Automatic annotation (TrEMBL):
<dbReference type="InterPro" id="IPR011707">
    <property type="entry name" value="Cu-oxidase-like_N"/>
</dbReference>
<keyword id="KW-0479">Metal-binding</keyword>
<feature type="domain" description="Cytochrome c">
    <location>
        <begin position="382"/>
        <end position="470"/>
    </location>
</feature>
<dbReference type="Pfam" id="PF07732">
    <property type="entry name" value="Cu-oxidase_3"/>
</dbReference>
<dbReference type="InterPro" id="IPR036909">
    <property type="entry name" value="Cyt_c-like_dom_sf"/>
</dbReference>
<dbReference type="InterPro" id="IPR001287">
    <property type="entry name" value="NO2-reductase_Cu"/>
</dbReference>
<dbReference type="InterPro" id="IPR009056">
    <property type="entry name" value="Cyt_c-like_dom"/>
</dbReference>
<dbReference type="GO" id="GO:0050421">
    <property type="term" value="F:nitrite reductase (NO-forming) activity"/>
</dbReference>
<keyword id="KW-0732">Signal</keyword>
<comment type="similarity">
    <text>Belongs to the multicopper oxidase family.</text>
</comment>
<keyword id="KW-0408">Iron</keyword>
<keyword id="KW-0677">Repeat</keyword>
<dbReference type="Pfam" id="PF00034">
    <property type="entry name" value="Cytochrom_C"/>
</dbReference>
<feature type="signal peptide">
    <location>
        <begin position="1"/>
        <end position="21"/>
    </location>
</feature>
<dbReference type="InterPro" id="IPR008972">
    <property type="entry name" value="Cupredoxin"/>
</dbReference>
<keyword id="KW-0560">Oxidoreductase</keyword>
<comment type="subunit">
    <text>Homotrimer.</text>
</comment>
């Protein structure tokens, strides 16, 4: 729209028409009318904006009047987990990737407070695609660590917009997670639905390959070459799978606010087993219906809506499918409720198909295998092998693959006097977690370890591995010992 106006301005000037003619709308243009209307919307009261972390979104604006909306957003540079055992230093708007969701309505006057946490190392700023102004706010918001910048803007155009950091090197700031969404609802709000969620895709570039353990640095060359190691929803592999899946009940209308932070890749957003009843194409006014896959450009967004008809787990993917199954671009929507065999039958029959005249034989029903029994370690060696896998999958993210921990955050398990002093206490920590001050090898730690949901067998394996590695006291922990502590 900005472009349209500029073009028109030039045309008007060429024709020698004045600004009066321009504003009175000598050309019959809908969007022009809308623009003039929204800029005139009065604001009276002040209100602190509700900001939410993904996958949640703030309360809909509903029928509220336009207001002066105070947005308080803090930039935090912080270490997070890209996937099991892989750490990454994310730069964030509000502590999460994507950043806090901002919800406004047309006519709001946003007073934006951008704070750069004093512990951060770099200056940042923000470019909001919902802003009509130079740099989308970037020029007014450049802020050093330990400082706060304030600027304000009138929200003119309804739609779903990306915001991102635009500090040089811009690509690097975006690649480290500095993006999020700001929604501008029309007057009266979007039509109500049952569930709303916030999802944003991003591509990441690490020195190591996908899954290489430890703290991974950003790789500028791979980013320039657009060779992503990770393509994920909401900042990490599995951020929205398993227990973190989003949910709905059969019959509910679901609305997804989907963004793409890039920095490089375009998303072919698709939900396996669902059809989008409605898509607000590119986050704008145009609504397409009955869509299978919608394209979301880097630095763009879409609002997709669908009613969930049957129960099950629906997989959200970037349909550039290697990204989904090999780079992390996979999320889950779990739907509970009554089946409807008219819509989906489930498996009816498993027939053996023999072409060329062979008879079609029926396989007996109910041949599905039971879930596998837990494999039990039969020797110390096996316990060590299973234990190492368990350790890398569940403990190494914090205590590190070499057991040395991270100073001031995660105590070492290697040559740990605390660990070696008391086996039952170590078992108890793994079963129930630990918080409060402890001293390990002369250094104080005061943090939180969450309880690990492991079976007796798994706890025995992992602790046996820990006790028999890195100069520790070589004890074997058995499932019986774990059970005894569990029953205490
Ligand atoms: Cu930045």
């Amino acid at each position: 729209m900005k472009l349209v106006i500029k073009q028109k301005l030039i045309t008007n000037m060429l024709l020698g028409l004045g600004a009066v003619a321009f504003l009175s709308g000598c050309v019959n243009d809908q969007s022009e009318k809308k623009y003039n209307d929204t800029v005139e919307i009065p604001v009276n009261q002040e209100m602190i904006a509700e900001l939410t972390s993904p996958p949640n979104v703030p309360t809909p604006v509903g029928k509220r009047m336009a207001k002066k909306l105070i947005v308080d957003l803090e930039i935090q540079e912080r270490e997070g987990e890209m996937t099991n055992g892989v750490k990454y230093v994310y730069w964030t708007f509000g502590g999460t990737v994507p950043g806090s969701f901002i919800r406004t309505r047309v006519g709001d006057e946003v007073e934006f407070h951008l704070k750069n946490h004093p512990d951060n190392k770099l200056p940042h700023n923000i470019d909001l695609h919902a802003v009509n102004g130079p740099g989308g706010g970037a020029e007014s918001s450049f802020v050093a660590p330990g400082h706060e910048k304030v600027f304000s803007f009138k929200v003119l155009n309804p739609g779903l917009y990306v915001y991102h950091c635009a500090t040089a090197p811009v690509g690097m700031h975006i690649a480290n997670g500095m993006y999020g969404l700001i929604l501008v609802e029309p007057e009266g709000g979007l039509p109500p639905v049952d569930k709303e969620y916030y999802i944003m895709q991003g591509d990441f570039y690490t020195e190591g390959k996908y899954g290489d353990r430890g703290l991974q640095a950003f790789d500028m060359q791979k980013a320039i070459d657009e060779k992503a190691d990770y393509v994920v929803f909401n900042g990490s592999v599995g951020a929205m799978t398993g227990d973190n899946a989003i949910t709905a009940k059969v019959g509910e209308k679901v609305r997804l606010f989907v963004g793409n932070g890039g920095p490089n890749l375009v998303s072919s957003f698709h939900v396996i087993g669902e059809i989008f009843d409605k898509v607000h194409v590119e986050g704008g006014d145009m609504i397409n219906e009955n869509v299978q896959t919608t394209l979301i450009p880097a630095g763009g967004a879409a609002i997709v809506e669908f009613r969930v008809d049957v129960p099950g787990t629906f997989i959200l993917v970037d349909h550039s499918i290697f990204r989904a199954f090999n780079k992390g671009a996979l999320a889950m929507l779990k739907v509970e409720g009554e089946e409807d065999k008219r819509i989906y039958s489930g498996e009816i029959r498993d027939d053996i198909y023999l072409p060329e005249g062979g008879a079609i034989q029926s396989m007996p029903n109910g041949t599905r295998k039971e879930p596998k029994e837990e494999v039990k370690a039969l020797s110390l060696e096996e316990r060590m092998t299973f234990g190492k896998d368990q350790y890398l999958a569940t403990c190494a993210a914090c205590h590190q693959a070499d057991g040395k921990g991270i100073e001031n955050a995660f105590p070492p398990l290697a040559k740990s006097d605390y660990l070696n002093a008391d086996v039952d206490r170590a078992i108890d920590i793994v079963l129930h977690g630990k918080t409060g001050e402890i001293t390990v090898n002369g250094k104080k730690y005061n943090s939180v370890m969450t309880a690990q949901a492991l079976s007796d067998e798994e706890v025995a394996n992992v602790l046996t591995y820990v006790y028999n590695s890195w100069g520790n006291s070589k004890k074997e922990v058995t499932p019986a010992m774990v059970q005894a502590v569990r029953n205490k």
